[in-house]
């Protein structure tokens, strides 16, 4: 398929073209990279329209099961739902694809849903960059909700939080240690905490956990328009969803009204640009042995105490500019 055809088809809502386009942007071949850039340029004016929601949580907390029921509910309300994954835990198997095929059985067969597992190549930074581009492609293809699942391990949840409009953390009700074992930074990033598995034997525990978290969280206020919410849910029994969905759209309305929504997207793209620029620079330096040697010589002088770090930095900049 010609590139122009591909981008036209992506924009016109063709699902196979979307899958193909994502495969193209995930490719690491140099020739594909050039095509991918052209494609992104074409689709960019059509991107940006979805509500982007990050869903994080430790393995087994029920993210995929939650996405299955949430996605189907959203589709019932007339939305189109794309699901992407950023999963650094298993670069070889491609994250939890096998689990997801069975956990998101109904959603994966729905015409209004598109599910794409995590790209398998490259470092987390690379995977995250591709996920950003995949979000744009899904938006250009007509999806108005993009859900991004990530396992709450290492950097991935920070990466995901930095590319979404709304960030959710799923938790399980654990007796006694509700406030432990979960990174404080992540709680501060979240707009909603969802206590999943609020059913059967753990129903009461989940309610107790909800109260405790809500009390601990009401002090945090995000940009004055939103206090993080704590809600319970059972993905198994499909309970708690209407409140979660209402809160999602409340958040969207409030953050748009307050200006946070737009500001946040601008900040995110600025940060992304900076990190892309940094990797372009690293790539440039790595491929120029002479320049690399000069920069290393400054570094050695700093390490040996011959010049100060700030002198060293200035010297390095000069080498780069006069190169
Ligand atoms: N009782 C109960 N079990 C649940 C619920 N949601 C998920 N489970 C079970 O929890 C297990 C893990 O669910 P997943 O949806 O695969 O969890 P996940 O967070 O996506 O897991 P990873 O992708 O491996 O990180 C499965 O056995 C589910 O059936 C729930 O609301 N209640
Ligand atoms: Mg999963």
Can you put this structure into words, describing what you see?
With 323 residues, the protein is an alpha/beta fold. It folds into three domains: 1-45, Single alpha-helices involved in coiled-coils or other helix-helix interfaces (Up-down Bundle); 47-258, P-loop containing nucleotide triphosphate hydrolases (Rossmann fold); 270-321, Helix Hairpins. The chain is built from 14 helices and seven strands. Strands 3-2-4-1-5-6-7 form a seven-stranded parallel beta sheet, with helices on both faces. Helix 1 (3-11) crosses helix 2 (15-26). The longest helix is centred in the last third of the chain and has 27 residues, at 260-286. It is globular. The two termini are 41 Å apart. Residues 90-95 have low confidence and may be disordered. The structure holds guanosine-5'-triphosphate and magnesium ion (MG). Magnesium ion binds next to helix 4 and helix 5.
CATH homologous superfamily descriptor of the largest domain: P-loop containing nucleotide triphosphate hydrolases
Query: Percent range for helical residues?
Result: 40-55%
Structural class by sheet pairing and helices: alpha/beta
Return the domain count.
3
Low-confidence stretches: 90-95
Strand order of the biggest β-sheet:
3-2-4-1-5-6-7
Quote the beta fraction: 5-15%
The count of β-strands is: 7
Whole-number average pLDDT? 87
Order of helices and strands: HHHEHEHHEHEHEHEHEHHHH
CATH fold name of the largest domain, please? Rossmann fold
What is the CATH class of the largest domain?
Answer: Alpha Beta
Number of helices: 14
Estimated radius of gyration: 22 Å
CATH architecture of the largest domain: 3-Layer(aba) Sandwich
Ligands: guanosine-5'-triphosphate, magnesium ion
The largest pleated sheet is described as:
7 strands, parallel
**How widely separated are the two ends?**
41 Å
Q: What spatial form do the alpha-carbon principal axes imply?
A: globular
């Amino acid at each position: 398929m010609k590139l122009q055809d591909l981008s036209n088809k992506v924009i016109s809502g063709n699902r196979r073209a979307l899958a193909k386009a994502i495969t193209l942007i995930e490719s690491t071949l140099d020739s594909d990279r050039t095509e991918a850039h052209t494609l992104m340029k074409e689709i960019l004016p059509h991107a940006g329209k979805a509500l982007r929601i990050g869903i994080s949580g430790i393995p087994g907390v029920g993210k995929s099961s939650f996405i299955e029921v949430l996605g189907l509910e959203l589709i019932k309300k007339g939305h189109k739902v794309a699901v992407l994954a950023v999963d650094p835990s298993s670069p070889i198997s491609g994250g939890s694809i096998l689990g997801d095929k069975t956990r998101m059985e109904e959603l994966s067969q729905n015409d209004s849903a598109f599910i794409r597992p995590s790209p398998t190549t490259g470092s987390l930074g690379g995977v995250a960059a591709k996920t950003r581009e995949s979000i744009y492609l899904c938006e250009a293809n007509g999806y108005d909700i993009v859900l991004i699942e990530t396992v709450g391990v290492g950097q991935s949840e920070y990466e995901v939080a930095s590319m979404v409009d709304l960030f959710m953390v799923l938790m399980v009700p654990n007796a006694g240690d509700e406030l432990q074992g979960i990174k404080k930074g992540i709680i501060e990033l979240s707009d909603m905490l969802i206590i999943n598995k609020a059913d059967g034997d753990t129903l009461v525990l989940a309610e107790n956990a909800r109260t405790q978290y809500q009390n601990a969280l009401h002090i945090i206020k995000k940009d004055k328009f939103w206090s993080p919410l704590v809600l319970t849910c059972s993905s198994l029994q499909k309970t708690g969803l209407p409140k979660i969905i209402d809160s999602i759209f409340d958040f969207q309305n409030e953050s748009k009204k307050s200006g946070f929504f737009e500001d946040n997207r601008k900040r995110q793209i600025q940060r992304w640009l900076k990190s892309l620029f940094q990797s372009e620079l690293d790539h440039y330096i790595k491929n120029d042995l002479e320049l690399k040697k000069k920069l290393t010589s400054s570094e050695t002088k700093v390490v040996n105490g011959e010049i100060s770090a700030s002198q060293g930095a200035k010297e390095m900049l000069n080498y780069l500019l006069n190169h």
